[in-house]
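Worked example

This section walks through a single chain of length 254. The input is the sequence exactly as stored; nothing has been trimmed or padded.
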Amino acid sequence: MKKVISYLVTHIPRKYLIRFSRIFGFLITPFYLGHKHKCPICNGSFRKFLPYGNKGSDNRLCPKCLSLERHRLLWIYLNSYSNMLITPSKVLHIAPEQPFLKRFKKNKLWTYVTADLESPIADIKMDIRQMPFQNEEFDLIICNHVLEHIDNDTLAMQELFRVLKKGGKAILQVPIDYNREVTYEDESITDPKEREKHFGQYDHVRVYGTDYPKRLEKVGFRVTVEKFVQNINPSDIQKYRLDPHEWIYIAEKP
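Given that input, the structure is written out below as tokens.
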């Protein structure tokens, strides 16, 4: 199974993975049912989660709703540590994740807009570096694990800042190497194999370091780092298969 997952993620374009992933989840779920792990998003119980990633890392992907560690942690944050889900808002969700899509659409307090460059489940096709929205249009923006794919992320950050209302918030998750103080990027590296070697994935263009909040602050955001995962019981971290080092970055427009 690890080899199959690794091949699919590495060789199949993202838009096709999204299109057929629900069928895959429906077929594979019965083989993983159990009671050792639970997904807080879909409430499914499993003996283990699916492998995921270029190397097929074990026990990561929910077989039912296809959530990863970062999705499950964010869901816990939204439900237990913030009031975002119960606040009337116009919400922009960039590169909408399948575990959230139907659940967010059902939120009657939200005017919910999804956008992506090529995702088949997004309402609007757009480039994050040149968004077709008015200034200060959204109360909340959700943009998870997108910026590491974007050439000129400063331009993308400026656009996120532009379309966010004053006092609005943006959840801007990226993978971070906490052993690296300065973000590593090299525009000359364009070959997919070299990018995987340098940046960890064939379609990544940088590795963010602990200077990530400063990069957001340079375009005007005020950044709060939510480290609530440190307060979650270790047994629940294992039960839900969370990353104990995953922090949530909330960027607010003053």
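What to look for: The chain has a mean pLDDT of 90.
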